[in-house]
Amino acid sequence: MDEARYVRFQGTDRGGRDVHPGVFALVNNLAREGRLTAEQEFFRRVNNAWYDVNYTNPTSVDPTVYNPAVNPGAAAWFKSSARHLIERVDGYLEILAAHGVGYRCLRSSDPGRIVYEDGDQVVAVPHPRSG
To answer: Is the pLDDT of residue 108 over 90?
Structure first.
């Protein structure tokens, strides 16, 4: 079997857009709720800032990429080659585990219809589920 080309870290529960939120959204939600320790909040701020500099936000290129009417269920996946980005995810996962927030790592060579792509990631609309 081929090695998976894409990796996604997401919550085990569906969020408000009926999509499993990614780990960044989950940790940011904990911060908005005031649930992070000072150390966790420091980690979040420093690493979110690092990602802002080193990782393209797809909505800055295409504001409709996550629009549910245009791309229902769209979700971002790291390219497995983007190790410099993936290696920093562990700290986010540790925060989620400390707060009892379920998450999982998905690997796929075909995450769906790709609606955005750059050197580090894709945003894909999942393939329709067969009944």
So the answer is: yes
Q: With 0-12 CB in 10 A as exposed, 13-18 as middle and 19+ as buried, what is 51?
A: middle
The closest alpha carbon to 48, from 6, 81, 95, belongs to 95
Supply the pTM of this predicted model: 0.91
| 26 bridge partner residues | none
Q: Which amino acid is at 83?
A: R
Let me know the angle formed at the C-alpha of 114 by 46 and 4, rounded to the nearest 5 degrees: 75
pLDDT band at 1 (very low <50, low <70, confident <90, very high): very low
């629009």: which residue's tokens?
67
Q: Which residues, including other chains, have CB under 8 Å from residue 87's CB and lie 6 or more apart?
A: none
Contact between 10 and 74 (Cβ < 8 Å): no
